[in-house]
Every structure is written in structure tokens, then in C-alpha cells.
User: Fold this.
Amino acid sequence: MSIFSRTRDIIAANVIDLLERSDDPAKTIRVMILEMEETLVEVRASAARSIADQKEKRRQVAQLGELQANWTERAELALSKGREDLARAALVEKEKLTDLAGELIAEVAEIDAALRVSEADIAKLQAKLREARARQNAIQTRMESAHNRMRMREMYAGGKVEDAFANFDLLERQADYAEGQAEALLLAAPAKTLEEEIAELKVAERVEAELAAMKARKEAA
Assistant:
């Protein structure tokens, strides 16, 4: 298949129909975009070659024009010298160049027409490629959003969240039990005996006496 036939097929292709007939729409879109990109590169390369060929032929036409002018000058010179035979021969050469130049000019016109068609095809192909990329991005965004919503719903409605909150309840019960044990130890602490209380009073009495002595020495000094 020529590049121009493939370009026409891509431009005329119905994207929706292609996706509906595909078993893997996402893969079909990727393949289609890749083919569009490759075809666009090939069409541009072909157009570049045509432009270069057209420029070369125009240079040849200009060169032929100069040669035609030279043969005209030679014919006039020969005629001025009375050599009509040479003048006629020079004009024959000029006419050969004129025919060749006409062929080149026709080829340049054909290339120009082909380039206009290629330019239109490139514009249509670029538009189709932009549309395909935009749809691909939109579909990808929708799919990601749908997956995220599914994950959120599974998280809220699934058993994992319930299990997690059940573990919270278990930990709270364990904390309550630990706090209860600590409070129970405080409640179970034995009361001070009479002897212990009297001993504490004696210690406090000695401390007060020593503190008073220290104050007295300080004042005396």
C-alpha cells in the first residue's frame, strides 16, 4: 500500500467503528495513534523530497532559459554574418531547449499540485491525530477516576474497614483493662501502721530541729 493510499484510509477511517469492533479498545487506540504518527512522518518526508525536486527542476528551467538566450544571440550573430544556415541550426538547438524547458515546467506544475494535496492531507491527518489523542486522554482520565471511585467504595463498604475498627475496639478494651489494673493496685495499697506514723513524726521533728539550729548559727555569724 502506498503512503498516499494509507493516508486516505486513515483520514476516512471511522474511529468509533474501529473501537466497537475491537476486543481491546485501548490497544486499538494506541496502535491507531502510532500508525497516524508514523504516516504523518512519512508524508512530511515525501513532501520534503518533492519540494527539493521542485526546486532543482526550477533551477534547471532557469539554466535552460540562459542557454536559450545564448543560442538566440548566436543565431543573430550568424545571420548578421550572412550565415543563414548557422543561424537556422542555432535556432533548432534553441527549440530543443525550449521543449525540454516546457517539460520541466509541466513537471514543476505537477509537483506543485501534488504538494497542495499533501498539505491538505497533512492538515487533516494532524486534526485526526489531535482528536485521537484528546479522546485517548479523556478516556484514560475517566478510567482512572472510575478506578479511584471503586477503590474508595471498596474501602468504605468492604470488610477491611470493619476489621480495622474492630481492632480499634479491641485495643480500647485492652487499654481499659490496663488502666483498671493500675487503679486496682492503688486501691489495694496497705494503710500505714501506728508505728510507721509515729516514726514519721519523729523524723520530721529531727529535721525541724536541725533546720532551726542551722538558722541560729547563720544569724549568729
The chain has a mean pLDDT of 81.
